[in-house]
Automatic annotation (TrEMBL):
Name of the protein in its database record: Heme chaperone HemW
Swiss-Prot/TrEMBL keywords: Chaperone, Heme, Iron, Iron-sulfur, Metal-binding, S-adenosyl-L-methionine
A GO cellular component entry from the record: cytoplasm
Radical SAM core domain boundaries: 3-238
Family: Belongs to the anaerobic coproporphyrinogen-III oxidase family. HemW subfamily.
The keyword Chaperone is assigned to this record: yes
Organism, as annotated: Enterocloster lavalensis
GO BP field: porphyrin-containing compound biosynthetic process
Molecular function GO labels: 4 iron, 4 sulfur cluster binding; coproporphyrinogen oxidase activity; metal ion binding
Record keyword Iron-sulfur present: yes
Short name of any one Pfam family annotated for the protein: HemN_C
Amino acid sequence: MTKKQKKPLELYIHIPFCARKCLYCDFLSFRTLAAVHEAYVEQLIREIEAEGASCQEYQVVTVFIGGGTPSVLEPELIRDVCLAVRRAFDVAQDAEITIEVNPGTLLQNKLHIYRAAGINRVSIGLQSADNRELENLGRIHSFEEFLKSFQCARMAGFANINVDLMSGIPGQTLESWRNTLKKVTMLKPEHISAYSLIIEEGTPFWDRYGAGCEKTAAKSAHQPGTCPGEAPDRFGLRRRDYPELPDEEEENRIYHLTRTFLAEQGYERYEISNYARPGFACRHNVGYWTEVEYLGLGLGASSFLGGCRFCNERDLERYLGLDFAAEDWAERLRPQFTRLSREARMEEFMFLGLRMIRGISEIDFVATFGVKLDSVYGPVIERLVKNGLLRREGVWLSLTEWGMDVSNFVLGEFLLTSA
């Protein structure tokens, strides 16, 4: 099979370790000893070798090393992972290779080793330029440490840097958010991800703010008085001891400021929560939203391959005990395995594609499913267009500005398999 005949594949590599878990985080991540880091990477490399042998019909077009906080590892371990990927997979010469890093865990010697290993994009988790807001989130770094990390990345030669920001966080105001946007855009990163805080069950923030509250990805909102909040949380403190979340009106202002401010600074909004300078949209994330197949490697990593979704073993001890030389390693690695129905794939095509500002192509829908878009969703689309939530331009269907404001509602209209 020639390289031109190979199918594109994205790799996600999960590093589940962090220096300290943030108060809002529900990702599969935890703190552990350096010896465990080494054992984990050795096992991860075995998985990479086993998976690579079964993916010869694919060419890797993007790699994303995420977590957790990959930069807590010794840089030589990251280098070893990158070398293993290149040995096991056919990696495109121009592949986008990203590593997530956090200020407070990043030294310049790490960045030079990352560059030498072929990593060409760095994603720095800042969240806020306000040190008080960072403390409220439980972050381990200050804004000043972020500035040093950003400058070190530039000095190491990285010409593609993303900065992660978070709105709707405790104690935040419209002015503090504007200040964060100003300080970050002055640095001219190539990409900015601006997500809204979601209060997830099982996190310390759920104890403080979440019981009985609703908070969605598109519009995080906290209504005073809807949460009991008077029982002490796991830290022995009560809700009134913590700073308030922005109310719904303030968060709406923050949401709209993000779009207008970043546009004025030359950033194109190419997805609901992502902005980039021309030519710097994250190829890995665009692949997710346009249904490029991806393979997750490491503890708890998720995959979409061959029309199936599956998730790796989530227990560290069991993962480290897997024998990748055994015939049944794949079955033991992936206890969760789901083959998507045609209807479920149509739903995902709409859910994911409509997150992109350009929307979805009716031509792509026909090519993927063999039927016209209107034969499946005609009445829904007609109603949403009439109500000003969707727009149709040629073969493209996309969310309007108002549609993006209420995207959760709009996307829910494309469910086919609800009970």
